[in-house]
Amino acid sequence: MRVYNFAAGPAALPAEVLAQARDELLDWNHDGMSVMEVSHRGKAFMRVAAEAEADLRELLAVPSGYKVLFMQGGASAQFSFVPMNLTAPGATVDYINTGHWSHKAIRDAARYCRVHVAADSGGAYTSVPAQRDLSFSGRAAYVHYTPNETIGGVEFGYVPDTGAAPLVADMSSNILSRPIDVSKFGLIYAGAQKNIGPAGLVVVVVRDDLIGHARPETPGVFDYQAVAAEGSMLNTPPTFAWYMAGLVFKWLKARGGLAAIDEINRRKAQMLYAAIDASGFYRNSVDRDARSRMNVTFSLARPELDGEFLRRADAAGFKNLKGHRVVGGMRASIYNSMPVDGVSALIEFMREFERAQA
Ligand SMILES: Cc1ncc(COP(=O)(O)O)c(C=O)c1O
Questions:
Q1: pLDDT tens, 309-321?
Q2: Would you say the CB of residue 344 lies under 6 angstroms from ligand 1?
Q3: Rg of the chain's alpha carbons, rounded to an integer?
Q4: Contact at 8 Å (CB) between 202 and 19?
Q5: 191 CB within 6 A, ligand 1
Q6: pTM for the full predicted model
Q7: Is 101 one of the annotated active-site residues of the chain?
Q8: Quick check: 122 pLDDT over 90?
Q9: Are 267 and 298 in contact (CB under 8 A)?
Q10: Which residues, at least 6 apart from 232, have a Cβ–Cβ distance to it below 8 Å?
């Protein structure tokens, strides 16, 4: 029986996609072999790879002049690959710090560049700075931000205007959740394991003029230009994850693409936040204009009931609701694959739990 899985990542995948992968697992493409067992350079897999890229370009409406790369190392590796590829030693880079992941990105960038923090909602991490509160260095090779902070449940409602400095975004936890204007970005990266597919793959969308400047010590397999020149097949890619990502892209297209999923995601988040706000029993401490539509954090007014809440939720088929250890409480990650019904059922469970404590 499938449960409602609210994990932050690796996260739930669409059941239809998993079923297709299951059906094709032993005999893919009528070849008598699994997609995992064939050469990445063979015609059949090359077609999978090309289709996945084309579908992703279509979903995101990537304009011409951008490369789409399929890489490895997780989003965390991009914390280093971005400065290694985009800057020379001694360069200044601007970072907006809105949570755990931007903080980690800053720590890694500081090994390669001078980091100027353009805004810092440090400490509680329950807000995002307004455009007028961003104080840029004026000499940044790029500006980096994290549009959705997965742990705190904090999401930007706007795309920062960085003037001439290219904008770099870690979209690991909100890519493909709503339409975006890619032309506003110099580089977007996202680990796959939330809205794209299984872990092991990182998608990078990068403007052409930003590649070709990697520092000489950058490993070849992580040099954006080298990766682009080889169609992301400079070495053996994670073929199964790439195939799965391709199935997820087709699933998303069949559901109407990002405009359609945007509507559904908006509805799910509204329902859950409204239920939390209407109760004195549950609380969300993120500023209203910064509430994440993907990761809804909440705590109980009586934290001594946390354990009981999680135990009962788990038994009722609502899995992985425990908040990240650095913030505690609860977190419901409601990525694209979470149906509206899953959120309604969770709300019903939360109401019943509250009633039982009265
Ligand atoms: C926003 C964000 N950035 C980076 C990461 C790190 O990703 P990875 O584990 O793929 O390195 C995560 C992981 O959850 C994330 O949510």
A1: 999 999 999 999 9
A2: no
A3: 21
A4: no
A5: yes
A6: 0.98
A7: yes
A8: no
A9: no
A10: 49, 69, 70, 71
Q: How wide is the angle at C-alpha 273 spanned by C-alphas 268 and 279, nearest 5°? A: 135
Whole-number Å distance between alpha carbons of 284 and 208 = 41
Element containing residue 24 per DSSP (H, E): helix 15-24
Average pLDDT of the segment spanning 279-306: 96
The 10s digit of each residue's pLDDT in 67-115 is 999 999 999 999 999 999 999 999 999 999 999 999 999 999 999 999 9
Exactly one of 194, 223, 242, 322 is catalytic; which is it?
Answer: 194
Tokens 């989003």 locate to 75
Q: Is residue 242 among the annotated active site residues?
A: no
Domains, the chain, with CATH or none = 15-254 (3.40.640.10), 257-357 (3.90.1150.10)
- Phi/psi at 354 (5° precision): -60, -45
177 lines ligand 1 (CB under 6 A): no
Which one of 70, 97, 128, 150 would you pick to mutate in the ligand 1 pocket, going by the greatest count of ligand atoms within 8 A of its CB? 150
Q: How far apart are CA 30 and CA 43, in angstroms?
A: 14
Q: Is 181 helix (H, G, I), strand (E, B) or coil?
A: coil
Cα-to-centroid distance, 203 and ligand 1 (Å): 12
